Automatic annotation (TrEMBL):
InterPro entries referenced in this protein's UniProt entry, alphabetically: Cit_synth/succinyl-CoA_lig_AS, CoA-bd, CoA_lig_alpha, NAD(P)-bd_dom_sf, SUCC_ACL_C, Succinyl-CoA_synth-like
Keywords tagged on the record: Ligase, Nucleotide-binding, Tricarboxylic acid cycle
SMART domains: CoA_binding
PROSITE patterns assigned to the protein according to its UniProt record, in alphabetical order: SUCCINYL_COA_LIG_2 (PS00399)
EC number(s) reported in the record: 6.2.1.5
Molecular function GO labels: succinate-CoA ligase (ADP-forming) activity
Name assigned to this protein: Succinyl-CoA synthetase subunit alpha
Gene name tied to this protein: sucD
Superkingdom of the source species: Bacteria
CoA-binding domain ranges (all copies): 4-100
NCBIfam families: PRK05678.1
Length: 293
């Protein structure tokens, strides 16, 4: 099985008519994702990529029965697009936009409290269930259907870990780019809960980095529930300078808070298996599965 998406996922693209929306929507259609329309205010009644365009998310949902939205809207308007989808009752929203202002994301976070929408992102690579559904910008050449769930804060390392897990003969059930921004939707703990509820996911890889406290919160959850399947973590940024921003809004360690070593210690204490280097993730998970078999 998968988490978040499946063969019945019907996607509309907010911002489809822009360059990014066009380019990635076309790639997703080629992969087999069921994109059923796009949203661009003022262009209702037109077609793009041979799909209908709507003025609003609500109109798109009413006409197409869409149950997922992806956001390719520029940073200045991305929060408004997310809130529109949340208020329309969209079950899943995947926000790919980078550099959404933190103040705007506070409004999005408040909107999420009023409904049942699951938000992935922003600054997310998306969600990929190999041979089932792709929402976002992940590469698919090395992805293979399998039994390992992957959740990641790092875009570049996601592709590397997917390749390793595939080369190890394990494949992926679902890969989720939760996003690296300081304020975002679905977190590591919630994502692991979804993987644990999926009977076909036999192991989970966590790709973490400096900044924030998500890895520590995940460690508390793992210690409390003692998962039946192995959890392997790769935490990067061990040699990152303190109080220097690294790449994006979430990646900054302040003093002893949010640094890589403290995250690793917390996860190890909870029973999470640490991959000592990015090139060892696939082998570490394969060994962990053999030990627990």
């Amino acid at each position: 099985m998968t988490i978040l998406v499946d063969h019945d996922t019907r996607v509309i693209c907010q911002g489809m008519t822009g360059w990014a929306g066009t380019h990635y929507s076309a790639a997703m259609l080629e992969y087999g994702t069921r994109i059923v329309g796009g949203v661009r205010p003022g262009k209702a009644g037109t077609r793009h990529l041979n799909l209908p365009i709507f003025d609003t998310v609500a109109a798109g949902m009413a006409e197409t029965d869409a149950n997922a939205s992806m956001v390719f809207v520029p940073p200045s308007n991305a929060a408004a697009a997310m809130i529109e989808a949340i208020e329309a009752g969209m079950p899943l929203v995947v926000a790919l936009t980078e550099r959404v202002p933190v103040r705007d994301m506070i409004r999005v976070r408040d909107a999420l409290k009023q409904g049942a929408t699951i938000l992935v992102g922003p600054n997310s690579q998306g969600v990929l269930a190999p041979d089932v559904c792709k929402i976002g910008v992940m590469t698919t050449g090395r992805a293979r259907r399998g039994t390992i769930g992957i959740m990641s804060r790092s875009a570049s390392l996601t592709s590397e870990v997917i390749a390793q897990v595939s080369d190890a003969g394990l494949g992926q059930s679902t890969t989720v780019g939760i996003g690296g921004d300081a304020i975002h939707g679905l977190g590591m703990r919630e994502c692991l809960e979804l993987f644990l509820a999926d009977q076909d996911t036999r192991g989970v890889v966590v790709i973490g980095e400096i900044g924030g406290s998500e890895e520590e919160e995940l460690a508390d959850f793992v210690a409390a529930v003692k998962p039946r399947i192995p959890v392997v973590a790769l935490i990067v940024g061990r040699y990152a300078p303190i109080e220097h921003r690294m790449g994006h809004a979430g990646a900054i360690a302040q003093g002893l808070a949010g640094d890589a070593e403290s995250k690793i210690r917390a996860l190890q204490a909870a029973g999470v298996i640490i991959a000592e280097s990015p090139h060892l993730v696939g082998a570490t998970m394969r060994e962990a599965l053999f030990v627990t078999a």
